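Hi all, long-time lurker, first post. I run a small reading group and we've been trying to get comfortable going from sequence to structure in the token notation. Rather than ask abstract questions, I figured I'd post a concrete chain and ask someone more experienced to write out its structure so we can walk through it together at our next meeting. Sequence below, copied exactly:
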Amino acid sequence: MSVADTTGVVILSALLKRLADGRAVEIAEFAAEEGFARATAFMVSRRLREHGFIVADPERGLALGPGLCQFAWAPFGLAELCGPAEAVMRWLLDQVEGAVSLSADGTELVALGNARRGVGDPSTTLELEQAIRSPAGVRRATLKLSLPRAQNASPAFAQRALVRAALTLEGYIRDPVPTDASVRDRRAPDDASPAGGASAGRKRAARRR
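-- Answer (accepted) --
Happy to help. Here is the structure in token form:
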């Protein structure tokens, strides 16, 4: 690896750490603070933008892009939900006042809404949740809606909106395509079936003759 490549990796690491704090970054200011050459820092940021890992905001600078979100959600098999999830969750919050979160395997992936303070307190909030399943019926994530009990929307209306949101997200989920090896593992050998066993028996008898 060349010196330029090594420098690029260092800039990449520092830039992503800065963006992970949730703050937008102005690339010239970032280069000056970290002691990087501006030209190299701009080159790295341009390549990251080209791949969707960061996005440019004319007013705020650079911010994390959907490409990195997909990386973060990929271990849960939900990379395809990264973009649509926030849009669907915001639609849900347009229907009912409260807070909504999406989690998988016990990890909260994203949370939106203005009622986070009371979440978990049954005296002030009503908790609703809906499973998000793959086409094969496997539970992949959970969409949870927390409603202030003082709000006007009925629980039945909120539940219908939650189910609709979950079904919309399910439309983006795909089951993994089986590899050649997994297909071979699932395929039964000839001797495992009655017909195959009989055929194999005839072949062995013919060899003995």
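A couple of things your group might point at:
Residues 64 and 181 are 36 Å apart (CA to CA).
The longest strand covers residues 139-148.
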